[in-house]
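Take a look at the protein record below and tell me what you see:
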Amino acid sequence: MRFKRVFTLVLDSVGIGAAKDAAKFDDEGSDTLGHITSYWNSELKLPNLTALGLGNIRADSPLTGVLPVEAPLAYYGKMQEISAGKDSMDGHWEMMGLPVTEPLGFFPNGFPEPLIKAIEEFSGRKVIVNRPISGTEVIAKYGEEQLETGALIVYTSGDSVLQIAANTAIISLDELYRICKYVREITIDEYHIGRIIARPYVGKDKSEFKRTSDRHDFTLVPPKDTVLDMLGQAGFEVIGVGKTNDIFSGKGIATRIHTESNDDGMTKTVEVAQTDFTGLCFTNLVDFDAMYGHRRDLEGYGKALAAFDERLGELLQNLQVNDLLLITADHGNDPGFKGTDHTREYVPLLAYSPSFSKGSSLGIRETYADLGATILDNFELPNKTDGKSFLTDLRRDQDE
């Protein structure tokens, strides 16, 4: 069978246990879902994800309170990343058939002085901080200095990112975006930084500083066509919901839908499901990563998963018999682990359609690109990726 519509939900940072190469990243022992469910000690209720088979993925090492079910509604498995890094860009590009094989520019001690000087000269503003630090901590510590001086807060993390935080009371969104766009242009070749991220926030003092939903990621442009391009070139609709558009720099995405939160992302995805189209709806839900993973907030992360699970039930009710839903993640960000950075983990894989009578195991996929290969296979397009389609696994069981 072929599906008319494919919905892909990326639960940003929802890893499911240390990957086989976790030691290379000093991430042995990381386990995003494992540590969250252990913290909640069976009080975390995820009925829809459980029914689909989330717990079946970890049948050999069960998640606390999210146990295997006898007859999962979805096919289930997990995927291993082969990209050189563990950034959102690496994960999403690999899903769409373009693994990032060369390490991106990484600046764990801050950015080189020539780059900082170039930013200051272009913006006419002094740069402060220039070191690894969490986004909430940096505005709490330096936000008032920014209000007093008008300086740019530049910081980084354990990934290939240069982030610029600005209070919109003194640096407008337009100015912040203009500066970030310039930084994007000068960091492609020499520094090869994966993402330049505009981080606007509001508030009159540190007691009320709060980041807004106007974040914008200025990423590298994919150097080759991805599955998104291949779908569009073949006449299929490609809809990007949330930060998906930013991650691909708009390349291959025909319809771009901005979101303000996980909840808004699910609302917009449900709205898309209520329309008639043929192609792919690709949604990223970033709050898991930005609001809870990096902040090492076990309680908040669990609440966010429960809230998503409830909205997932609404999406399931709006799926048609010829729809396919793929649920996965782009990396881990374990709130029960050391540091504040992404973690190298396997990511869950759930494949569901109302047409399925039952699900079964898809095993361990050797690359995220298997997801993109499956989408191409579904729309009967040549597989120009290194991934292996699991579409026949979905069909075979239903045809028996």
Notes: The first strand starts at residue 5 and ends at 11. The chain is about 35% helix and 20% strand. The CA atoms of residues 104 and 241 lie 25 Å apart. The chain has a mean pLDDT of 95.
